[in-house]
């Protein structure tokens, strides 16, 4: 089988968002990005659930052995839901003929010479070593026979909204990303008392079944006593998993995991911890808080608490992206103003469509330009909060023009909308300051 690249003519692609001029698709790679709000801190906060400790000496300094400080008379039970290989799976649903084939969603590989990255790959493609964020050219080398598809962010957003609408019929939800969020499966004081892990597991099964029934998509759900542990649990049995971790299983199921599996341990912290011979969550838990503080500052103390199973149980409001951006890498670096202008207009159209799809208004329009030597400039301008395409185009053009005057060759241009305001219930311009 030859590599199939953006295969035309299928019902699927008819549903896809318009991809602009033929030239754009054939010669350029595009990346759509949504910046998520920062992950909530795992530091001990007003609302915490404390695990039961097996003995007093294991209780970390400064923490009590009380079950809950939420003020409710039930134990918090939190689930984390994460869709399986989300973009790829959505594509497979609308193109059933892809079943069983390796599918990669991301930039155009252009027979191994494409210049963007992989957004995601289905589990068949992952067996070849393809994963999110690797260069598309590398993905092509790993599996030239894979089906490579462009990103249809608008469609994935619509499916995402549908999924959380379904989930919210069962429980309070907090969407934290396009394909993930938390559910509160705790007991309630009212008629719909749940309250046990067994009941929570049943509800999670019903949610998984409803999502599958209504969208054809599978997800993985983790259930635990706080958000951080629930998120780890969700990742333990992917795809289509349902994993319950109870307080008494902290040491058996969570402590053996690598340090970086703990929310808040990023690449830098991982390196620092590894240098101190701390490689597992259990080793973080067993480390002296003073040692962690010396290594990572006050964040070390937060990680120590998290490793002992302390974490937030409070669900926040609805997820809203902080910014929406689109950028294009030219197939060949160019200083042709007509090409640059056409691409910029196309990016404005797309980023604007994304904002409409997300139902957000925006206050700031930014542009990004990368020259052939990788020198990168960004510029942003704030305007009156709006949803107008014309404003995006005008500000983008005015902002990028000074950088183009030099006549230097350009590798990449991008447009970004930020200062986003939820549009639901806010129909009149005058309502925005
Ligand atoms: N995504 C992206 N670029 C990345 C990572 C992710 O565009 N570097 C997009 C594509 C994913 C979606 O976000 O489908 C959700 O991200 P996840 O990390 O949840 O990854 P998947 O859902 O694809 O796979 P998994 O089954 O591991 O959750
Ligand atoms: Mg996912």
Keywords:
single chain; 433 residues; alpha+beta; MutS, DNA mismatch repair protein, domain I; 6-stranded antiparallel sheet; 34% helix; globular; disordered N terminus; binds 2'-deoxycytidine-5'-triphosphate; binds magnesium ion
Explain the overall architecture.
- With 433 residues, the protein is α+β, with helices and mostly antiparallel strands.
- Among the domains are: 4-11 and 85-151, MutS, DNA mismatch repair protein, domain I (3-Layer(aba) Sandwich), CATH 3.40.1170; 323-431, Dna Ligase, domain 1 (2-Layer Sandwich).
- Helices cover 34% and strands 22% of the residues.
- It contains 15 helices and 17 strands.
- Helix 6 crosses helix 7 (197-215), helix 6 packs parallel to helix 14 and helix 14 (337-358) runs antiparallel to helix 15.
- The protein starts with a strand and ends in an 11-residue tail after the last strand.
Q: Which residues sit in consecutive blocks of at least 5 with pLDDT less than 50?
A: 1-27, 36-72, 189-193, 425-433
Under CATH, the topology of the domain at 323-431 is which?
Dna Ligase, domain 1
> What small molecules are bound in this structure?
2'-deoxycytidine-5'-triphosphate, magnesium ion
**Beta-strand residue fraction:** 15-25%
Q: How many β-strand stretches?
A: 17
């Amino acid at each position: 089988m030859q590599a199939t690249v953006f295969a035309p003519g299928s019902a699927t692609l008819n549903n896809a968002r318009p991809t602009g001029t033929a030239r754009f698709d054939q010669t350029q790679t595009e990346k759509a990005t949504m910046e998520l709000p920062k992950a909530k801190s795992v530091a001990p906060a007003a609302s915490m659930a404390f695990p039961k400790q097996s003995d007093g000496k294991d209780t970390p300094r400064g923490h009590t052995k009380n079950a809950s400080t939420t003020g409710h008379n039930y134990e918090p039970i939190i689930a984390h839901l994460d869709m399986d290989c989300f973009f790829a799976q959505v594509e497979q649903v609308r193109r059933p003929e892809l079943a069983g084939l390796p599918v990669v969603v991301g930039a155009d590989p252009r027979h191994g010479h494409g210049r963007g990255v992989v957004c995601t790959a289905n589990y068949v493609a992952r067996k070849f070593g393809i994963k999110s964020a690797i260069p598309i050219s590398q993905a092509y080398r790993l599996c030239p026979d894979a089906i490579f598809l462009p990103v249809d962010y608008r469609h994935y957003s619509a499916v995402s909204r549908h999924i959380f609408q379904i989930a919210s019929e069962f429980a309070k939800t907090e969407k934290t990303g396009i394909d993930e969020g938390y559910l509160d499966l705790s007991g309630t004081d009212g008629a719909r008392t749940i309250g046990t892990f067994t009941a929570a597991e049943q509800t999670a099964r019903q949610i998984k079944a409803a999502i599958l029934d209504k969208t054809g998509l599978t997800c993985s759900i983790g259930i635990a006593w706080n958000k951080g542990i629930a998120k780890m649990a969700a990742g333990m049995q992917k795809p289509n998993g349902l994993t319950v971790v109870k307080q008494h299983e902290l040491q058996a199921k969570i402590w053996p995991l690598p340090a970086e599996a703990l929310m808040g341990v990023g690449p830098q912290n991982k390196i620092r911890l590894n240098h101190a011979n701390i490689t597992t969550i259990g080793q973080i838990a067993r480390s002296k808080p003073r040692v962690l503080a010396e290594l990572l500052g006050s964040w070390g103390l937060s990680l120590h608490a998290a490793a002992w199973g302390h974490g937030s149980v409070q669900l926040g409001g609805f997820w809203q992206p902080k910014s929406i951006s689109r950028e294009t890498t030219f197939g060949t670096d160019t200083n042709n103003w007509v090409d640059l202008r056409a691409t910029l207009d196309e990016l404005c159209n797309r980023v604007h469509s994304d904002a409409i799809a997300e139902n957000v208004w925006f206050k700031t329009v930014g542009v990004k330009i990368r020259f052939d030597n990788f020198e990168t400039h960004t510029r942003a301008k704030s305007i009156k909060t709006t949803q107008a395409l014309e404003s995006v185009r005008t500000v983008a053009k005015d902002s990028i023009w000074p950088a183009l005057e030099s006549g230097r060759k350009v590798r990449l241009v991008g447009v970004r909308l930020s200062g986003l305001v939820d549009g639901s219930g806010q129909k009149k311009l005058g309502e925005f300051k």
